[in-house]
Amino acid sequence: MPLSQLKFINYPAPKESRTSRKREKAGSNPILSGLLLAILSRVLAASTFVQKLLWRLNGFDKIKHLPELEGYGARSDPTVIPVNTDDGELLHLSELPRPRNRKNEEAYYTIADYHDAYLSGKLTPLDVAEFLLPLITRRATSVSQYAVAYLDIQPEIVLAAARASTERYKSGKPLSVLDGVPVAVKDEVNLKGHKRCLGSSQDFKHKLDATDWCVLKWEEAGAVIIGKTNMHELGLDTTNNNPTWGTPLNPHNEAYYTGGSSGGSGCTAAQGICPVVLGVDGGGSIRIPSSFCGLYGLKTSQNRLSVFPAEHGANTVAVCGPMAPSIDDLALAYRIMAQPCPEDPINDMWPSTITRDALNVDGSGKRYLGIDRDWVARSDPVVLDMFNTAVQYYVKVHDYEVVNVRIPLQAENQKAFSLTILAETMTTISKERVQQLQHPNQILLNVSGMHATAQDLLASNRLRARAMRHLSWLWEQYPGMLLLTPTTPCAGWKIRKPSDITDGYGATDADMTLRSMEYTSFGNWVGTPAITCPVGYTEGNVPVGIMALGQWGSEEQLIRFGERHEGFLGEDGVRRPTEAGNWVDVLSEAKKQ
Fold this sequence. Notes:
The protein has 20 helices and 15 strands. It is an alpha/beta fold. The protein has one domain: Amidase signature (AS) domain (Amidase signature (AS) enzymes, Alpha-Beta Complex). The protein has an 11-stranded mixed sheet, with helices on both faces. Strand 5, helix 6 and strand 6 (224-229) form a beta-alpha-beta unit. The longest helix is centred in the C-terminal third of the chain and has 24 residues, at 454-477. The chain is globular. Pfam families: Amidase. Residues 137-558 form the Amidase domain. This is Amidase domain-containing protein.
């Protein structure tokens, strides 16, 4: 079904946006770590004058003065709902496309490999759970390179789920191909029987002990949730440097961060512990770890996949989404988790993700790739080279047509996004709690979260409306177009010095944070889905990703793009870590115990 046949609620009226404004030179923020970071966080907490000075120096006060906002109303929620008047026949989970097995013995295991091992009787879900739990459980005296990716594991819950799955296989009645497969979820989501600390030392667990809808759908399909993963505190940066819980290192090159804020999920998937994991995407915290860790990652436009949607921020669209080394696994995980939730009247308007019509949603007959050349050119040369090589592949092999487009005011949109998400954070956390956060977040929230006025927020949301209407105009010109960029303009984020992750203070580099979010924050700001695909590796074995942003409701079209992208990776597919010990052969090792 072409996207053009879908009907929408809240679809923005098309309007081309132009500007002659040149991109302002980025401000220069100091890199802070160690004792200096701790001292400055205390100074800022005590001085409103210094907070406001830094607010102005970073240009947050300029958005409300943009002349380009004239004629645009404020849009505080970017949610655009695709509505299919006839959802069609619901498929049983067993009728969904089955993931393929891994291509060779050097590749990552897929969901199908686990399922086949269980069907054969050579291995059971309980065998896998009993093998993984000692590996990922934190010890009082030490935390292993695998356990640092996890914040909360409840062995009794894990083993009970694994036993139930084992019995289903013994009786020949698995619930789906996902039955018994180990998966992990970011600490940000609610999971019954588990803590929820948002990567902090504090308790943010909801008074209702319940599981978020998207995770519940995985559980109903038989998945074994083995634990909650490490994250950057409150999800407010892109490194996953976490002084409280430890910092997961990039399995491909341990001198680099995994990316954040869903870095624990990205790390454990890259290590081979789970074939699919769940992240929560605010400023790119599914796609950045996916890119840094060499995975596929899907950010959806369906922003209410929680039983407590307000906790994830509707205005900035923090959404749950899967990461996986396999595009097939990514697709299956998305289709299962994103089924409409009848408990939420907004979410329930979405068409089902498990009908034949839904699986066939695609773009127009012509395949367009929209590229803003000036924007893409801001990437590092090694990233740009890989990006251009991939574009040539799409054009030659899959008949995509490249169209040159402009996305006006990218820097201003990113600033408005940051202003809004930080102001929203301050509506859900008290000043007393801010004082208990890690030092980088104390600085961030005291400077950027405290001083947004109603005028600033309204101006930001007028800018959002402008960006959404421009995108709508582009899709009117080029139906089904995918906006293509690198996932991040940089090839990973190198850890500056060992003490940045060991001294208990943490580290902050605001300029690098903004740079890493250069492309990923835009999709969250305007509410569109996006997929990141692994595109190559630097000489230092650091993964690089490419990102396609699609029209509202185009998740299946993006999955088609990911499937076509597979050919670019060649016969070997996604590369697993090359260093010994950085990848776990779960199925082989579980058989030996």
